[in-house]
């Protein structure tokens, strides 16, 4: 029997071996060959990657800068990469952005279901990460624009912003007493966080929620959303994230966040009918009872998902904007002096602080902020997109489910859009924009896109600019600023979805002397 079976066994082993080799070769070939090449794209460059990881290693420690360098090296306003197993289109100039989005805004309007975002948003029940095809995103986005972040609602929170701007001035004055340098990065983050918590949860800023340290929990949420999850690029290796402890951290954070939101929502339900103004939780609870929204907006998790949006999208973006603007101002004392002169002249030297009613007169300040967001967009690769259907760009077919990175930072440095001195910090280049109080020009342009582009662009522009302008105006009005002796303020960046300075901005400051005092 044995002698009869042996040749069959050998043959079987050989066949299995050959089949295994074929499957492996086909698999590696699939990984090595870009899907775009198969889809006939002679014109779009695809920088060569490595087996399995593709071009992931080329992202470096500061991905938007590495991608800009890669695009420049290949003279590729549009390039096609493979990040792990994910086909990815990278857009790096204003013209390319127009060519991609003008005809394909709908096709480009998806978001990839990233691992951490999916968990934190209760399975994509929010505005930032939810898929655009379903009724939920449309309803939630409509609610954001018309209720949560509308111009009247934002105006209604003026007292909160002015109160927190005054608290920031007091905190800076106290930390700088006796000539000590101030950690402005930390002060700005605390202020921005407080504004959002008061606006979202009410006057107590969430402090009523007893033992839960909401600031620390939300901070961890932000870190997890910016962390690199292997599963987002090579799903079959997702188990590595568990070994790295990321799953455990994510679960802990999710449950802490959830417990916090449950308490906040219960507190709001218990005090319903009280007449002390609506915060965002009140608005969301009201919408959930509204027949116009009931069919799509119908469970508590959606309220929690949208609250998370407000925090992740609104807190450190505003803080980073002021942080980078102050960085550039201290590096350019002439521009700092000009902006200060404008603020002090427009507000009046006898006043304590800048009020929101003063802001429309501060034209140069708005140019400075615009320039800062051109050179340092706080979300340099926007929030990742994903094509929801195939589309054609420059004659090349881009398949559905291609990830899309818009390099807002590279676009802000594009010499075709900004001239040969694009790298120079020069607020005057925005002089020709007449209506700086209107947020529309942000979204009309393809050359300045810190708030994104098309139908998924940021609905919080109004909210964000009112916070940023007020905080910056007060810092310039109330204090003189300079780097500590012998220190050159650097431009090193910390990575994450939102990009802050790597080293905190520590400055020496002196309180402005009021006339006659
Ligand atoms: C300076 C501050 C801010 C910057 C630079 C910023 C930037 C961005 C960017 C780049 C996007 C992605 C756009 C795209 O994919 O095209 C975005 C989306 C979003 N932002 Fe902002 N943002 C800021 C402030 C805010 C604030 C204060 C809020 C709300 C309180 C907010 C809420 C949102 C939401 C809900 C989305 C998702 C929109 C969607 O996917 O439909 N943002 N933001």
* Gyration radius over CA: 26 Å
Q: What percent of residues are in strands?
A: 5-15%
Describe the biggest sheet?
4 strands, mixed
Tally of individual helices: 21
Annotation, overall tally of beta strands = 11
Oligomer: single chain
What's the overall average pLDDT, rounded? 88
Structural class, by secondary structure, is alpha+beta
Question: What proportion of the residues is helical, as a percent range?
Answer: 40-55%
Poorly predicted residue ranges: 1-7, 31-35, 37-41
Structure description:
This protein is an alpha+beta fold. Helix content is about 50%, strand content about 10%. The chain contains 21 helices and eleven strands. The strands form four sheets. A four-stranded mixed sheet has the order 1-2-7-4. A hairpin with a 5-residue loop joins strand 9 and strand 10. Helix 8 packs antiparallel against helix 9, helix 10 crosses helix 12 and helix 15 packs across helix 17. It is globular and about 100 Å long. It binds protoporphyrin IX containing FE. This is Cytochrome P450. It comes from Paspalum notatum var. saurae. One of its GO terms (molecular function) is oxidoreductase activity, acting on paired donors, with incorporation or reduction of molecular oxygen.
């Amino acid at each position: 029997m044995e002698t009869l079976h042996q040749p069959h066994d050998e043959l079987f082993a050989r066949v299995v071996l050959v089949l295994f080799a074929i499957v492996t070769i086909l698999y590696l070939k699939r990984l090595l060959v870009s899907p775009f090449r198969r889809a006939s794209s002679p014109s779009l460059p695809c920088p060569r990657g490595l087996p399995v990881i593709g071009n992931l290693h080329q992202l470096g420690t500061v991905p938007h800068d590495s991608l800009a360098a890669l695009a420049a090296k290949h003279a590729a306003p549009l390039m096609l990469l493979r990040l792990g197993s994910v086909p990815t289109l990278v857009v790096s100039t204003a013209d390319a952005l127009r060519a991609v989005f003008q005809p394909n805004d709908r096709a480009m309007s998806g978001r990839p279901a990233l691992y951490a975002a999916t968990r934190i948003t209760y399975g994509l029940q929010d505005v930032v990460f939810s898929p655009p095809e379903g009724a939920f995103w449309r309803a939630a986005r409509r609610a954001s624009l018309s209720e949560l972040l509308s111009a009247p609602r934002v105006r209604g929170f003026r007292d909160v912003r002015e109160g927190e701007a005054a608290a920031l001035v007091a905190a800076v004055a106290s930390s700088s007493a006796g000539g000590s340098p101030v950690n402005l990065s930390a002060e700005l983050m605390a202020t921005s966080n407080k504004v959002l918590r008061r606006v979202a949860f009410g006057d107590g800023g969430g402090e009523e929620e007893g033992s839960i340290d909401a600031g620390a929990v939300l901070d961890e949420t932000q870190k997890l959303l910016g962390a690199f999850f292997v599963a987002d690029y090579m799903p079959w290796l997702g188990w590595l994230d568990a070994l790295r402890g990321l799953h455990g951290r994510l679960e802990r954070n999710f449950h802490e966040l959830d417990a916090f939101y449950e308490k906040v929502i219960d507190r709001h339900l218990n005090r319903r009918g009280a007449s002390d103004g609506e915060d965002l939780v009140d608005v969301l609870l009201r919408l959930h009872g509204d027949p116009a929204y009931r069919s799509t907006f119908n469970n508590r998790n959606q309220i929690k998902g949208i609250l998370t949006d407000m925090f992740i999208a609104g807190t450190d973006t505003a803080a980073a904007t002021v942080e980078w603007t102050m960085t550039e101002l201290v590096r350019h004392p002439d521009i700092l002096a000009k902006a200060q002169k404008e603020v002090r002249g427009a507000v009046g030297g006898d006043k304590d602080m800048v009020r929101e009613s003063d802001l429309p007169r501060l034209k140069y300040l708005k140019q400075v902020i615009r320039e800062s967001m051109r050179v340092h967009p706080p979300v340099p690769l926007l929030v990742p997109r994903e094509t929801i259907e195939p589309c054609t760009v420059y004659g090349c077919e881009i398949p559905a489910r291609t990830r899309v990175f818009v390099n807002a930072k590279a676009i802000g440095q594009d010499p075709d859009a900004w001239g040969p001195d694009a790298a120079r910090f020069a607020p005057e280049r925005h002089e020709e924009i007449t209506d700086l109080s209107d947020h529309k020009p942000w979204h009309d342009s393809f050359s300045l896109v810190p708030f994104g582009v098309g139908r998924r662009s940021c609905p919080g522009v109004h909210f964000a600019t009112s916070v940023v302008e007020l905080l910056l105006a007060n810092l310039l009005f109330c204090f003189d600023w300079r780097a500590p002796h012998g220190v050159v303020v650097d431009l090193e960046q910390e990575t994450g979805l939102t990009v802050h300075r790597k080293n905190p901005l520590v400055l020496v400051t002196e309180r402005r002397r009021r006339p006659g005092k």
